[in-house]
What does this fold into?
Amino acid sequence: MKMLGWILITLATIAVLVSCSLARCCSPLTSPRHRYWTNHLYNERELFEQAAAQHSRFLIVQRIKKLFGFIPGNEGVQHIRIPSCHDWRDISVPSFLCMGNDMQGHYSFLGDRLDEDNEESKSGSIELKP
It folds into this structure.
């Protein structure tokens, strides 16, 4: 039984080595082309991740500003919006699935649930004076 395990491990290792070798030999890409495309895919993935991080951060900052009336880290805060109970209730329900007709879905708990015109009209606000 012990010998059968080692035979299976050996056969699996040989199969992986042969398949990798055949893939390289049968590939229409030369070695420099293969390195180029490997680098290209790596750079594309890295730049996509950076763009996605910047995009999500930008959207989150906009949504937080819409909810509270200021951007975190901003030192010149003159006005703070107090979210209404309706606003808190709206962002408390998870919205990971596509809702509505836009079929885009929301990837965060803030979503786009705050109305554009709701920014100061329905809830109180505080004006800060230095």
Residues 115-123 have pLDDT under 50 and may be disordered.
